[in-house]
Design goal:
It contains 10 helices and 12 strands. It is α/β, with parallel strands linked by helices.
């Protein structure tokens, strides 16, 4: 993870770790993920929830104050009786953020923000310091609110998406077409999540992929996500972290190409369109080039990274 005073953290990889597995948590600290998501939801069986809360709280407390790492906690859905116990158990350890699954829309984030307001005050934490990553496509209702997150809460770090729970909510027998690709509804959910995050001015985060044995497939998937406009990606296995980080880091060729675009516009002395290498480029190309160079600068900045 790289910190930037103007834009906040640049998180390329979020690695899920089961909340009841302390040895996996310790190992996860060493694999280079920009952030860990300590999970209290799907990877923890109901009988283990209370133990997982204690394990996560102790682990996060031990890491508190480390400048090089971001620890997030995925709580259970707000509609369940587990969500508030999850929050009350872990907030004293000051996690960097909370991942909230299965939301229906912005009203759920307002509710969560109120909970966090109270818990931050109770534990003498800076007001608003706990960020939120919302899994924003897991219910049918959620698809109709993906353009409504702008200005809802300053806590909102980003939006991510998922296809499995949405399929269950739609009583679909599968979310895949005959050739194995995502069916249209789930491609739509991904696109709306991406557009909704950018419309709200927050970070779009690509969902996790199940394949962790082939780093080339992970890299190709993450690269496509970056090219589509995502800023980072979820990971479910440590072996996915390195290819994700690589895919979300600009290549030297991309950096040099972006520098040439910026330099060409500077030389054009205010022109809104230029010709470069047989292509016509205009202001959107300049914005893209500047964004890529800013990202590269943040990632190359001296200082601690995870």
């Amino acid at each position: 993870m790289v910190m930037d005073a103007a834009t906040g953290p640049t998180i390329r990889s979020f690695l899920f770790v089961p909340g009841d597995a302390p040895r996996k948590m310790e190992k996860a600290l060493t694999v280079g993920a920009d952030a860990l998501i300590l999970d209290l939801e799907d990877s923890v069986m109901p009988a283990r929830k209370e133990a997982a809360r204690r394990i996560i709280a102790d682990f996060a407390a031990a890491q508190r104050g480390q400048p090089y790492f971001a620890l997030w906690v995925r709580i259970n859905p707000l509609a369940t009786p587990d969500a508030l116990p999850d929050l009350t158990a872990v907030m004293h350890a000051a996690p960097a953020g909370v991942v909230v699954p299965k939301i229906d829309g912005p009203a759920d984030l307002i509710r969560l923000s109120h909970y966090l307001d109270a818990l931050e005050a109770h534990h003498d934490l800076p007001a608003g310091s706990t960020r939120v990553l919302a899994v924003a496509t897991e219910t049918p209702a959620a698809l109709f609110t993906l353009g409504d997150y702008g200005g809802v809460t300053a806590r909102l770090f980003g939006l991510t998406w998922g296809a499995e729970d949405l399929a269950a909510g739609l009583t679909a027998s599968t979310n895949r077409s005959a050739n194995g690709a995502l069916a249209f509804t789930y491609k739509l959910a991904r696109s709306l999540c991406l557009a909704g995050a950018h419309a709200a001015g927050v970070t779009p985060v690509e969902t996790a992929m199940m394949n962790f044995r082939d780093p080339n497939v992970v890299f190709d998937t993450a690269t496509r996500a970056r090219h589509d406009g995502f800023f980072g990606m979820l990971a479910i296995h440590p072996d996915q972290v390195a290819p994700i980080n690589s895919a979300f880091s600009p290549t030297e060729a991309e950096i040099q190409a972006a520098k040439r675009i910026v330099a060409a516009f500077v030389a054009a002395d205010g022109a809104g369109a230029i010709a470069l290498d047989g292509r016509m480029l205009d202001i959107p190309h300049l914005r893209q080039a500047k964004h890529l160079l800013q990202l590269a600068q943040r990632l190359a900045a001296p200082g601690p990274t995870a």
